[in-house]
């Protein structure tokens, strides 16, 4: 079992898998921005801008994470 | 704070909804009781402590991963938790039940891909029923209000709102008042 976890192939597969998941998460966070915008247009309050700002920052961090992972792996 | 975390808001300020008329006034906004958020808060708490457990298991088995790998993996994990919490918070915050001086409105968001808005004029409301069932609902005084209407959507359900008996009374009084005091 330990051999499986330490083998180079497993390491590469794991890293590729994580980058793939991070990429999917990026798309999810982008959809979330659109959804918060839709929610804001359906029901508008004072804190709507804050939520939209948070969703944008969340998306930027997700994009940054994919780039960081590609550089570090 | 009231508008941010409120579940029973009377005469909210700076609040509008899709389809609101110029001469329409929002009288009440209801959301699901705060206690109904405990399930996803619990999941988020478990997710928060998971990395520490995983690190312990890996160390016990003598598996050492590179610092860069652990850093990005941890960052991804905590970002996922932030996204999970944010998504659930949004769904709770934007799932609202609105009573205006003209109609009732049910704004529903399920997940991030489903939106449903229903409304019915107050004059079309025929019957209002409140329901509290279960230990948690009795302890924390929340439950559902069922509103029968003669509009296109026959029944509205205000789910898990605080103080359902009071909400039922408010709606009944408004309908009675609209009909000139006659049921």
Short description, anyone?
The complex is a heterodimer of chains A (73) and B (183). With 73 residues, chain A is an all-alpha fold.
How does this structure look, described?
The complex is a heterodimer of chains A (73) and B (183). Chain A is built from 3 helices and 1 strand; from the N terminus they run ααβα. The longest helix of chain A is centred in the middle third of the chain and has 35 residues. Chain A has 73 residues and is mostly helical. Chain B has 183 residues and is an alpha+beta fold. Chain B is built from 5 helices and 9 strands. In chain B, the strands form 2 sheets. Chain B has a 5-stranded antiparallel beta sheet with strand order 1-3-4-5-6. A 3-stranded antiparallel beta sheet of chain B has the order 7-8-9. Chain B is elongated. The chains are: A mainly alpha (73), B alpha+beta (183). Chains A and B meet through α1, α2, β1 and α3 of A and β2 and α3 of B.
Count of DSSP strands of chain B: 9
Helix content of chain B: 40-55%
Largest chain-chain contact? A-B, 34 and 34 residues
Note the total helix count of chain A. Answer: 3
SSE pattern of chain B: HEEEHHEEEEHEEH
Main beta sheet of chain B, described? 5 strands, antiparallel
Low-confidence stretches of chain A: none
Class of secondary structure makeup of chain B: alpha+beta
**How are the strands ordered across the major sheet of chain B?**
1-3-4-5-6
Radius of gyration of chain A: 17 Å
């Amino acid at each position: 079992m330990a051999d499986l976890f330490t083998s180079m192939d497993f390491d590469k597969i794991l890293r590729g898998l994580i980058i793939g998941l991070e990429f999917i998460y990026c798309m999810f966070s982008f959809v979330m921005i659109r959804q918060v915008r839709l929610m804001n247009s359906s029901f508008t309050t004072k804190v709507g801008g804050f939520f939209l700002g948070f969703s944008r920052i969340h998306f930027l961090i997700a994009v940054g994470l994919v780039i960081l992972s590609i550089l570090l792996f | 704070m009231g508008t941010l975390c409120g579940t029973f808001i009377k005469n909210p300020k700076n609040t509008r909804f899709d389809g609101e008329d110029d001469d329409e006034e929002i009288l009440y906004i209801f959301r699901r009781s705060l206690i109904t958020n405990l399930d996803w808060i619990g999941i988020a708490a478990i997710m928060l402590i998971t990395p520490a457990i995983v690190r312990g298991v890996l160390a016990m088995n003598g598996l050492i991963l590179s610092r860069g790998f652990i850093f990005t993996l941890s960052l991804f994990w905590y970002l996922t938790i932030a996204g999970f919490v944010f998504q659930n918070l949004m769904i709770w915050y934007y799932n609202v039940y609105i009573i205006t001086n003209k109609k009732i409105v049910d704004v529903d968001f399920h997940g991030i891909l489903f939106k449903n808005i229903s409304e019915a004029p107050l004059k079309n409301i025929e019957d209002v029923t409140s329901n509290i069932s279960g230990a948690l609902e009795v302890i924390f005084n929340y439950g559902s209000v069922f509103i029968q209407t003669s509009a296109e959507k026959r029944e509205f359900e205000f789910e898990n709102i605080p103080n359902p008996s009071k909400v039922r009374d408010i709606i009944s009084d408004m309908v009675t008042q609209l009909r000139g005091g006659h049921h």
